[in-house]
Design a protein that fits this description.
It is a single chain. With about 400 residues, the protein is of the alpha/beta class. It is built from 18 helices and 14 strands. It is about 40% helix and about 15% strand. The strands form 4 sheets. A 7-stranded mixed β-sheet has the order 6-5-4-1-2-3-12, sandwiched between helices. The chain has a 3-stranded antiparallel β-sheet with strand order 7-8-9, covered by helices on one side. The longest helix is centred in the middle third of the chain and has 24 residues.
């Protein structure tokens, strides 16, 4: 066994970032994830640099530990092959809009009779009970919809998106959590079910826990937005030779820091003596920290604050993070020899398990690399697979039959 989800069969009909990130987390935990791709492949195969067509860095990082199966669901043989796979799968996950799934004859009501134990999980833009139900959605739209750019603007000027696929990855994690809990429910009851993970509502829950703020009360007792998080001064602090991230937060932290900064009298100032008081004067404290950190080097501050048990870290770039001593010690970045892409750097599995240890088992797959072997594993005969390949319902990079035929 490799990972706690070893033996769980997952059909992944998602694309882009959100769904593939969710299935990556399942695959890293040992699930057998079959990535069902259209003949054109996942769009992220072309996003970012790559050594070969269809194998971009974005795709490589989101799709290891998965196998690629190409099916054209607009053709009868492709759809029939997928339905055969559904009948013996544990999970079907998708990111198409529900109406599109219904048009493909793949709505939950259309597949559950063939497999009552199936976990049928969709992550898409909006909950199906509201007026936005049929709209498409992407990460930028979700950030805008819940107000992230305006929250950023209170710090830095014009509204801006966060520089990461923030909503996609948060909702992807929520999708993984939903699937895991549905599998647990099935273990107790024997029953599968349909689960919807709408992006809008899921990301709103994530953001508003911090920023609904005064509007939590009816009527409101203050503005929206957590002031400390939106302050323009909440940022890494410049040192003599770089930047550090610092969280001086508890009473003890501040008492020690005031002493270290040569201002012990500030600890007795009622404006700074408690968390509630400091929240009322957070901007001036941020300014004080900024001025203080400019007086020493990064290494000096890290040494002093680590010894005082005040949270601090050197600010990295993605490049310098590769040489971080902690990341090296835990082996987070690993080298892998990809069969077609050559040496690549992979991101480690961050969790540690005392049992059922997860592993990186497969490199990210080439388009249609596993079509034939997977379809045969799921019960199709060689004749059925060959017929689907001939009429375009299935495509494979290589078909292993009596001879090798290139279908790429």
């Amino acid at each position: 066994m490799s990972g706690p989800l070893s033996g769980v069969r997952v059909l992944d009909l998602t694309s882009n970032i959100m769904g593939p990130y969710a299935s990556l987390l399942l695959a890293d935990m040992g699930a057998d994830v079959c990535k069902i791709e259209s003949p054109e492949g996942d769009s992220t195969r072309s996003v970012g640099p790559g050594r070969n067509k269809g194998m971009s860095v974005t795709f490589l990082h989101a799709n290891r530990n998965k196998r690629s199966v190409v099916l054209d669901l607009k053709k009868n043989s492709g759809l029939a092959a997928l339905k055969r796979m559904v009948s013996t799968s544990d999970v079907l996950m998708y990111s198409l809009r529900p109406k599109t799934m219904a048009k493909l004859d793949l709505a939950y009501e259309q597949v559950r009779d063939a497999n009552p134990r199936l976990i049928y999980c969709g992550a898409f833009g909006f909950g199906q009970r509201g007026p936005y139900a049929d709209r498409p959605a992407y990460d930028d739209l979700m950030q805008a919809a819940v107000g992230m750019p305006l929250l950023q603007a209170r710090k830095s000027g014009p509204p801006q998106y966060v520089a990461a696929a923030f909503a996609d990855r948060v909702v992807g994690m929520a999708m993984t959590q939903a699937i895991a809990m549905a599998l647990y429910y099935r273990e107790r009851t024997g029953s599968g079910q349909a689960v919807e993970v709408p992006m809008f509502e899921t990301f709103a829950h994530f953001v508003l826990g911090d920023h609904l703020y005064g509007h939590t009360f009816v009527p409101p007792i203050g503005d929206w937005g957590y002031e400390r998080m939106m302050s323009p001064e909440r940022k890494p602090y410049r040192t003599l030779d770089g930047h550090v991230g610092v969280s001086v937060y508890t009473d003890r932290h501040w008492q020690r820091f005031f002493e270290m900064a040569g201002r012990p009298e500030m600890a007795a100032d009622p404006r700074y003596a408690s968390l509630a008081a400091r929240m009322q004067h957070v901007v001036e404290l941020f300014e004080f920290l900024a001025q203080t950190f400019e007086t020493r080097s990064t290494d000096e501050w890290v040494k002093l604050l680590v010894e005082a048990d005040i949270p601090i870290v050197k600010m990295n770039t993605p490049e310098t993070l590769l040489d971080d001593e902690h990341m090296k010690a835990v082996g987070f970045f690993q080298m892998q020899e990809h069969p077609t892409e050559g040496p690549i750097r992979t991101l480690g599995i961050a969790q540690q398990w005392s049992e059922s240890k997860p592993e990186v088992r497969y490199p990210a797959p080439r388009l249609g690399e596993h079509t034939v072997e997977v379809l045969l594993e799921y019960g199709l005969t060689q004749q059925e697979v060959d017929a689907a390949l001939r009429d375009g319902g299935a495509r494979a990079e290589i078909q292993n039959s009596n001879q090798e035929l290139n279908h790429a």
